[in-house]
Amino acid sequence: MSLYTDYLNEIDARKEQGLNPKPIDDGALVAELIEHIKDTSSEHRNDCVNFFIYNTLPGTTNAAGVKAKFLKEIILGEAAVEEISPEFAFELLSHMKGGPSVEVLLDLALGDDESTSRQAADVLKTQVFLYEADTDRLTTALAQGNAIAKEILESYANAEFFTKLPEVEEEIKVVTYVAAEGDISTDLLSPGGEAHSRSDRELHGKCFISEKAQQEIEALKLQHPDKRVMLIAEKGTMGVGSSRMSGINNVALWMGKQGSPYVPFVNIAPVVAGTNGISPIFQTTVGVTGGVGIDLKNWVKKVDEDGKAILNNDGNPVLEQKYSVATGTVLKINSKDQKLLSEDGEELVDVSSAFTPQKVEFMKAGGSYAIVFGKKLQSFAAEALGVEPKAVFAPSKEITDEGRGLTAVEKIFNRNARGVSAKGALHAGSDVRVAVNIVGSQDTTGLMTMQELEAMAATVVSPSVDGAYQSGCHTASVWDTKAQANTPRLMKFMNEFGLVTGRDPKGEYHAMTDVIHKVLNDITVDDWAIIIGGDSHTRMSKGVAFGADSGTVALALATGEASMPIPESVKVTFKGTMADHMDFRDVVHATQKQMLDQHGDNVFQGRVIEVHIGTLLADQAFTFTDWTAEMKAKASVCISNDETLIGSLELAKSRIQIMIDKGMEHENGMLAKLIGIADARIAEIKSGEKPALTPDDNAKYFAEVVVDLDQIDEPMIADPDVNNADVSKRYTHDTIRPISFYKAEKKVDLGFVGSCMVHKGDIKIVAQMLKNLEKAQGKVEFKAPLVVAAPTYNIVDELKEEGDWEILQKYSGFEFDDLFPKTTARTEYENILYLERPGCNLCMGNQEKAEKGDTVLATSTRLFQGRVVADAPDKKGESLLASTPVVVLSAILGRTPTMEEYKAAVEGIDLTKFTPPLEKPAGAKSAHF
C-alpha cells in the first residue's frame, strides 16, 4: 500500500472522531501528493492539490523540504500546476517560516534571472527565521557585490519585516466566557491525561475544558461574529500550575485567529483574563501566540471606614464586585488608551499591564518568536552593512539606580544580560535578553517542542548552551502504545539536535526515566546560571530557573537566549529552632502559611523568592524551590553557604559522572563540559575569587518574610478544601492546616511518596519507618495502599547498596521491572506497598491515577481537581499534600494520625533537618541526603 492510501485510511478513521485530515509532516507522503498533482488523470489530483497547499506543515519538517523544492520547480518553469502560479508559489513559500523555504528563496534571489530574483527578494524581506547558514550566504553575496543581497540586508537593518506589518487594532471587541470560578489550572485547558495527543492540535482541542463549554463557546461566536471570545477565570488567576503550551494552543484553537491560511490548527491572538490576572508562566505562552492577557480586578476587598479589609467568619476578606464579566457580557478593549470598557464605553479598569511596548510588539508580529528572531536578524544585517540598526523596536527597559544594591536574581540577570546599553547595573523591572545556560525538555511537551523547533527552522542546539536534557519521566509509569509511539521518535529527534536524552535512541544504555527536575538540578553546576525548562517545576536550588512552555524551551535551545523582565524579589529568612519531630517539608508549608499571615495577600505571586537556606545541600533545598511553583512565585533563588555549595557541586559532579558511566554522554561532550564548569566554580569559591552568590546588603525587596521555626510544632498539610462554600478557595495551595485539624478522623484511601518534591532521604525515611514499626509491632500492615516512586535510578541504586531497598522489597506487593514494564495503567489498588518505576507517577496524572473519589495523601506538588484523583459520582476526589512520614503513617493507619502516634512513629528517624544560616556562615550543612 502507498503512503497516500494509508493517509486516506487515516482520514476515514479521523472522520469517525469528527476530525479533519491530520497535517502532513512526512516528506515521502508529500512526494506522492506531487505525483498525483502531476498526473492530470489521477482521481486523487484535486484532493492532493489541497493537501499540498493547505495541509503540509512548514519549517524544517521533511514535508516542508519536499514542498519547497517543488514550489521552486514551479517558479522556474520546470513544473506546471494550474492551481499554483509562480506568484502563488512565492506566497506559499512566504508562509513556510524558514529552513528549506528560505534556502529556496535565497537560491532564487541570488540567481541570474532578475525578475525571479526580485520577487524572491521581496518575499525574503518578510522572513525572520534565518540561521547562520542563511546569513552566511547573504554576507558572501554582499562581499561579491550582489545588489540584491545588499537590498535584502538594508531591509533587514531597517526591520521592514516588522515595520510593514499592520498595527494592533485600536479597539478589540470581546464577549466573555467564564471558564470557572477561582484559579484556572492549565490542566483544565489541556488535561495531563491527554498529553499523548498534544502534537495533534485538532485532536487535542477536543479535551479543552469540556464538550459543553466548547458548545457554549461556539454559540457565543455565532451570536457575536464581530467579536472575540475572552476566556475568564472569575475570582481567580488564569493559567496556574503547569506551563504547558498546549493550554494556550487550545484556547487559541477555540477562540483565536488562524495564523496562516496554509497552516491548519495553528491559531494566534487569543484573549484571556482573570480577576487576579494571568499567572507568570501562562503569560509567557500568551506572548508566544501574540495574545492579550487582561488583569480584570473586577472583585476587590470590601473595607471598613478605616480602610481595613472586612473579614468573613473564616477570616478571609469579603469581596465585592466592581463590574460584571458574566458569560455573554460584551466589552471593549482599547489598546491605545489601554482601558477595558463596557459595551457603552464606560471605563472599567486600566489594562496597561497587558499592553506594554514589548507585548504590543508580540501582538503586531503574531507572536514573540518573530520579535526575538527579528531583533537578531536586524543586528546581524546592520553589522554586515557597517551601519547602526534603525530604532524600530521598543528599547529594552533598563532600570538603574546608582547606589542601590542588587538582589541575587538581579546579580544573575546582570551577569547573563545581552545587548544592554545602560552603564550601571540593572534592577528589577528591566526587560532584557539573557543567555540561558541549561535547558530541559520533558516528554509530554517535548513533541510540541519538536514542532516548534521545526517551525522556527532550527537544526542544532545553540553552542552557547552549557547543558540540555530531554527527559522520559512524565511517561515513565506505563509503557503503553502511546508512549511506545511517541517517546522513541522524540528521543531520536532531540539526540540528533544535540541533547543528552533519558532514553538512548540506539538502545545502547538503560532507559533513564529520572524526574527531569532532579536531573536539571544535578547538571546545573553554577549558582549564577539561568535555567529554562518545559515544566513549571523547573526550580533549581542552584542558579535561577524558570518553568516555560514548549515554545520558549525551543527558543532557548535554538538561540541560547530568552527575553524576560527582571522580577522583583521577596526575601525569606528563618529564625528559631526546628523541632526534632518536624520534617523540612513542614517548614516549606509553614512558609506559605506564615507569609499569608504576615502580609494578607500572596506577596510571592509573580516574584522571585530569595530564600536564605544556606545550610541545606541542593538536593534538600530543592524541596523548597520546587514548592515555589505552588506559591505562584515566578522562580526561586537559594542563598547558600560556600561549603554547602561546594558540597552540592561535588554531589552534582558525581551524578553527572554516573550519567557518563552509564553511556549517556552525547557525542558533543556536553556532560564532560559540565564537570569542567563545576570544577572551575569550586576553584573560584575555594580561592575566595568568587564566593557563593549572595545579595548586597542594601538590595531592595518587594517584601520580606521571616519564618519562625518555633511556631512549627505540628506536621503541616496543604488541603484542596474541596467542599469550601466559596468555590474560588477550592484547589488552591493556600489552605495550610496542622495535622491536629483533622482530629485523626480524616480517612486516607491512598498514600503516595514520590515526585520531584522528594529526595533520597525521603525514601530512606520510608524504610526507617517500616523497620521501626516492624520492631515495635512484629509486622507492618497497610490499611491503605502506599505508592512509592523514587525520583531517580541513582537513588534506587544507592538505597540497594545501603540496605534500605531490602525492607521496601519485603513489604512490597509490586516492584517495577524494567524488562517487563507495565503496559496498562493501574485503576485499582490493594492495601500493599507499590514500588514504582522512577519518574513522576501519580503526580503527573497522565497515566496513573488513584481510584475515583479517593482521598489521597501525597508528597507531590499538585492538588488540582482531577490531577492525581478524579471525582466519583458520589464523592469528590481530593489530594492532600504532606511530608513523607505523615504520608507513610497515614497509609498504615488508613487515616491521619494523632500527634502522639506521629511522634512515636518518627522517634529516632533521621528526618530532613534544617538550621537557619548564621549571620556569618559557619559552613554547616545537613548530612542527610
UniProtKB/TrEMBL annotation:
Annotated ranges, domain Aconitase/3-isopropylmalate dehydratase large subunit alpha/beta/alpha: 427-894
Pfam family, one: Aconitase_B_N
The EC number(s) this enzyme carries: 4.2.1.3, 4.2.1.99
An annotated Gene Ontology molecular function: aconitate hydratase activity
Keyword S-adenosyl-L-methionine listed: no
Residue ranges occupied by any Aconitase B swivel domain in the UniProt entry: 176-406
Identification of the protein by name: Bifunctional aconitate hydratase 2/2-methylisocitrate dehydratase
